[in-house]
Fold this protein.
Amino acid sequence: MINFLQLRNDMIDNQLISRGIFDELVIRAFRDVPREEFVSLDLRNIAYSDCPLPLDKGQTISQPYMVALMTQLLSLKKTDNVLEVGTGSGYQAAILSKIVQKVYSIERFAELVAQAKSNLKKLQINNIELICGDGSCGWEDKAPFDAILVTAAAPDVPEELINQLADGGRLVIPVGEMHMQRILRIKKKGKGIVENYYDSCVFVPLVGKRGW
Ligand code: SAH
């Protein structure tokens, strides 16, 4: 029998805290979400590896550290209205759902939406509204958002996403070339924005109206 709890705690110590993840809400969320439930059966034994893992439809569940870094950069508090673009397995959405009251998430592949819904239901996570569609222009009806997280690589920052941020809102998005990007955080301040770049990364492409 694999001791997933032990693997999870080791991952949090060796991959997250040791690399500078300090937000207690983020760390607690990682303790609460069993990552092995978000990968296929044949990958469960390596669910806590320090790397992305394949999902169906040629997509990937991000490396745990990348999920933690992006979540920490959102500076979340419980009452925040949060949008994720690129649901994939639902793992990142599950992490967000442990920190805030309500999460909206959009995924373009119906098959992945169905899998994510089933993964989340099994864990009795009920505060995520999940739809199938192109999230590259955000989710106008649910805006404004305090935080928007894009988990696919964009060529540029979609203007619609900035428009859907509340004043003081944060957008975290991998931006760059098709095969290499950097994590960008944008904070909206009144009519202006403040931009900061973080780690290099390689995400699957954001495909859609404002993607590739
Ligand atoms: N956050 C996911 C992993 C994301 S992989 C997890 O925790 O498992 C990126 C996902 O973004 C893929 O599933 C891909 O299909 C999706 N995607 C790409 N472009 C999209 C778009 N325009 N709208 C919605 N989803 C998109």
